[in-house]
Task: inverse folding
């Protein structure tokens, strides 16, 4: 028996050996291979992690990072191959397979009009499908970022998402910008959203914000390293984040490894920044010739370019150089990603720049089906130099009378060169962030997740003006308010460390055959520590001294801040046949900034979602194939400043032992502002899923709004006390329409339209008449912006001169200057009786925030390889204060020199900024990009699997503006000039240049 068995085994081995050498009939000779690539039609980018399968054969594979897939051992015959990926429409193709053949089969897949199956992790207890959410969540994919001229995270977030505004940076390399979600709601606190990266919160404060610039730590995030971005927009969506989340939450999910062989991606980008039409912006400067008494004018910008002055253009085309390389791949056990990028960008001035190195890595380990671990780590190092107040140097302070003076004698060129070359302001940035997420699913009905990590950011600012000032010793150049003659050196060192620990667990049970229940609990801990050191020295003896230790006058200071939040939440979700979802949750929060008499904050939430189109009664009325109703109500908070509740004393020096003096009275009853919001909306797809519509209406009330109330002098403490006595309201609508106009080759045409309306009002200020708007970051005051009860938050106010008479003749001094006395709400609306200007209030011009916003993106795909994208942006309903124009008016405007307009002369006496108020409505051609995808055969010849070239131009032109000139005729530079030191819109200070334009060419290569 053993002999028979051994002989049979030997014969089988021989057959297998022959089959391996010559190919056994019925095995390899009767099977073939199907291979190809899956591509997103909307972006032209390869699609990773798509499922490619043949149902009847139970055969399938996942696409790799380059979009490639491989189906092995496919039997001979005709088969239907299917591609599926969450968020995309299913695609199928029929293919004939012959023996021993390798069949090439590529797929173009299109995003679903509404993506009900898409997994959302932000604002949920462990991740939830979109269909179960009652609130709207916007999501931006890596592919959508890759095909646009995106250089910073704010550009990706603030373009095309209804309800999200991107306040563009000043026109310099590395300038700070802002993200706003929905309408303003606070009188005293910051308005920016919380930012999370891979589940941990990061510090994104703007620091060193002054009239000329600011530093934003959002620039530390490299768009090349992002897999997706999720945005939740208000208290109804952000309840589970508790205190500080009422302004919304943005979650940035970085790239991770995927199963498959290692794929490398390389991109190179070059281009230039420039300041659009500067000569037109500067316009004419007027003056009285001191020799002849004649009134003359010239263009300061054009004059300084002349051979008698600089002999060259003042500004340059600032070069842009970027490089990125990353690798990703892995197995079912271990998956990995690693990336390295370099940015080197210069601005228009020739001195402003920003440069950085950014490295990122991720490794995921799945030792068991029930357990996964993902470690992410990133490191950034870079620096940014600002151009200072170059705009105001030329446009506000430079004296036209001195234009004839040669270099070195205090003329306009000296002032420009002194500012440009005699001042150094550099910010050195560093950041290390790591996070670890562990997901455990021990049984089918229970899952738990813990996420922890640290974000450690450092920022050092070095500001230096040498002895001799901004003109290297040239006389007449120290006119900009610094201690330039003696020398001035300042060093700030800010280190911020945030720690996040987040645990959640969910248990799911079937209540009945139709009804299931998922109960979640969670605990969050957040801690922020910030230390600030400042060293200052001035008055140097000789030019060679540059260190603080060499200064005659030296000062130093040190500050430390610690803030801790602990939150606990409980949530339950009911699911009826995967069509109707009802969710209720409550979060309990305590924060170290709350007053000692304030109990923990409670933030409840309720939401529902009904996919009506999956009901039996749905018959696709009016061609609507999919339809979902949704609604949500919830609360979240906004914490006060870290020491706002604490009574503070300041040390003072004197003879003998030092002493303390009252600094701030504090408030032991101080708590957070509580935002309560309801939002209702629907999602629909129609016309064979070629049209997708999303609509949301929301209304928010913020109670216990923090107001800075004046302290009675008898109390013995100076300044103001923050108290919870205010209330604000805000409201709006958000509409998004995506249309696939043409769907077949050779031309595809996609239109994406987004519209937002928004508004706000101050309902209660605790009896206070008006508050001057200040920046929450640094307490700087805004000109012409006030908080007034009954009117919009941070509205534009100024005295409005309505009549004046010349003292004699038709020019010169005026008398009988009368102003609008106000009427209506708070007696500050325009149209009141004329009263002497000394007795007149500052009247309301309009809101500082836009009340509407439109975004239109049109994409044409030609013969699958060419993709042309054109984007228009528009917004309006707001007013702006042209403070840089006011700087001109006080010195060298035409009417100031001629003094022949009585109304103008009246404004000069009583209202510096009144003549410079203008409306902010505009329409801009924002970006145009053209992308060419190399044919796979050509990319293969170059050694890769795919390659593309993208050329783009950004911030191209203003197609329309409601006000091109002020009412007295001064040219308005740009409706998007914005103060970097204010959270609110409406303030445009001198020294802030308009946003730059840029053109880039980018080459992407995957192999």
Result:
């Amino acid at each position: 028996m053993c002999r028979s068995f051994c002989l049979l085994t030997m014969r089988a081995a021989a057959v297998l050996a022959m089959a391996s050498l010559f190919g056994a009939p019925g095995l390899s000779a009767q099977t073939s291979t199907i291979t190809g690539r899956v591509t997103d039609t909307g972006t032209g980018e390869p699609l990773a992690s798509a499922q490619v399968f043949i149902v009847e054969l139970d055969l399938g594979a996942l696409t790799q990072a380059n979009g490639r897939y491989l189906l092995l051992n496919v039997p001979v015959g005709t088969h239907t191959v299917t591609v599926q990926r969450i968020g995309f429409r299913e695609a199928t193709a029929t293919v004939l397979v012959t023996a021993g053949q390798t069949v090439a089969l590529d797929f173009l897949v299109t995003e679903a009009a509404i993506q009900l199956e898409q997994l959302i992790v932000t604002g949920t207890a462990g991740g939830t499908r979109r269909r179960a959410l009652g609130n709207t969540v916007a999501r931006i994919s890596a592919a959508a970022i890759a095909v646009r001229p995106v250089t910073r995270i704010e550009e990706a977030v603030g373009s095309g998402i209804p309800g999200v505004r991107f306040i563009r940076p000043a026109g310099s390399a590395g300038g700070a910008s802002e993200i706003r979600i929905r309408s303003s709601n606070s009188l005293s606190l910051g308005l920016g959203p919380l930012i999370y990266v891979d589940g941990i919160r990061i510090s994104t404060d703007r620091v060193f914000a002054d009239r000329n610039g600011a530093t934003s730590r959002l620039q530390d995030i490299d768009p090349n390293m992002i897999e997706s971005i999720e945005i939740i927009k208000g208290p109804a969506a952000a309840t589970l984040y508790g205190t500080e989340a009422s302004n919304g939450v943005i979650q940035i999910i970085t790239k991770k490894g995927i199963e498959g062989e290692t794929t490398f991606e390389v991109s190179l980008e070059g281009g230039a920044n420039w300041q659009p039409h500067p000569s037109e912006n500067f316009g004419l400067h007027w003056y009285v010739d001191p020799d002849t008494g004649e009134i003359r004018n010239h263009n300061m910008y054009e004059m300084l370019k002349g051979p008698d002055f600089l002999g060259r253009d003042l500004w340059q085309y600032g070069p842009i150089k970027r490089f990125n390389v990353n690798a990703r791949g892995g197995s079912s056990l271990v998956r990995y990603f690693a990336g390295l990028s370099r940015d080197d960008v210069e601005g228009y001035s020739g001195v402003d720049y920003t440069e950085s190195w950014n490295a990122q890595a991720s490794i995921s380990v799945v030792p068991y089906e029930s357990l996964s671990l993902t470690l992410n780590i990133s490191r950034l190092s870079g620096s940014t130099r600002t151009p200072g107040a170059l705009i105001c140097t030329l446009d506000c302070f430079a004296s036209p009378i001195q234009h004839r003076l040669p270099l070195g004698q205090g003329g306009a060129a000296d002032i420009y060169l002194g500012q440009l070359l005699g001042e150094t302001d550099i910010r050195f940035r560093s950041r290390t962030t790591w996070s670890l997420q562990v997901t455990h699913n021990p049984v089918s009905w229970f899952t738990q997740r813990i996420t922890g990590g640290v974000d450690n950011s450092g920022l050092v600012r070095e500001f230096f003006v040498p002895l001799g000032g901004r003109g290297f010793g040239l006389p007449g150049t120290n006119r900009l308010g610094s201690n330039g003659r003696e020398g001035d050196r300042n060093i700030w060192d800010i280190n911020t460390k945030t720690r996040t620990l987040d645990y959640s667990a969910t248990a799911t049970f079937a209540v009945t055959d139709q009804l299931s229940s998922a109960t979640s609990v969670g605990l969050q801990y957040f801690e922020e520590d910030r230390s600030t050191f400042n060293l200052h020295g001035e008055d140097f003896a000789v030019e060679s001294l540059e260190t603080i230790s060499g200064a005659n006058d030296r000062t130093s200071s040190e500050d430390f801040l610690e803030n801790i939040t602990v939150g606990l939440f409980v949530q339950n979700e009911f699911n009826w046949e995967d069509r109707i979802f009802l969710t209720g949750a409550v979060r309990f929060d305590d924060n170290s900034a709350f007053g000692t008499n304030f109990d923990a904050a409670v933030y409840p939430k309720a939401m529902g979602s009904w996919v009506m189109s999956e009901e039996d009664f749905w018959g696709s009325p009016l061609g609507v194939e999919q339809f979902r109703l949704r609604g949500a109500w919830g609360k979240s908070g906004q914490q006060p400043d870290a020491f706002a509740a604490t009574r503070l004393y300041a040390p003072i020096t004197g003879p003998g032992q030092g002493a303390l003096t009252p600094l701030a009275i504090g408030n032991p009853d101080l708590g957070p502002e509580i935002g309560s919001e309801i939002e209702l909306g629907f999602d629909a797809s129609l016309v064979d899923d070629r049209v997708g519509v999303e609509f949301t209406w929301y209304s928010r009330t913020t109670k216990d709004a923090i107001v800075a109330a004046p302290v009675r002098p008898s109390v013995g403490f100076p300044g103001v006390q923050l108290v919870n006595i205010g209330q604000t309201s805000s409201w709006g609508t958000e509409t998004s329409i995506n249309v696939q106009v043409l769907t077949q080759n050779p031309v595809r045409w996609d239109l994406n339209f987004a519209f937002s309306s928004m508004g706000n009002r101050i309902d209660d200020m605790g009896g206070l008449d008006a508050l001057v708007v200040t920046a929450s970051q640094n307490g700087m005051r805004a000109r012409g912006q006030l908080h007034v009860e009954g009117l919009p938050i941070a509205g534009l106010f100024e005295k409005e001169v309505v009549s004046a008479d010349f003292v004699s003749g038709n020019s010169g001094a005026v008398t009988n200057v009368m102003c609008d006395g106000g009427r209506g709400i708070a007696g500050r609306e325009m149209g009141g009786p004329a009263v002497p200007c000394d007795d007149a209030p500052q009247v309301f011009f309009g809101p500082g925030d836009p009340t509407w916003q439109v975004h239109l993106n049109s994409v044409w795909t030609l013969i699958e390889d060419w993709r042309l994208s054109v984007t228009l942006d528009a917004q309006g309903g707001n007013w702006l204060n042209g403070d840089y124009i006011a700087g001109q008016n006080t010195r060298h405007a035409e009417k100031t020199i001629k003094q022949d307009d009585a109304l103008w002369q009246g404004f000069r006496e009583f209202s510096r900024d009144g003549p410079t108020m203008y409306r902010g409505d505009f329409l801009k051609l924002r970006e145009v990009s053209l992308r060419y995808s190399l044919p796979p055969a050509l990319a293969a010849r170059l050694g890769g699997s795919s390659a593309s070239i993208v050329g783009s131009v950004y911030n191209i032109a203003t197609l329309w503006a409601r006000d091109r000139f002020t009412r007295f005729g001064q040219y308005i530079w740009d409706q998007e000039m914005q103060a970097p030191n204010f959270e609110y819109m409406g303030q445009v200070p001198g020294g802030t240049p308009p946003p730059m334009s840029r053109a880039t060419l980018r080459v992407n290569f995957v192999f």
Q: What stands out?
A: Residues 13 and 353 are 71 Å apart (CA to CA). Residues 2-109 form a domain with the Immunoglobulin-like fold (CATH 2.60.40.10). The first helix runs from residue 2 to 22. The mean pLDDT is 84.
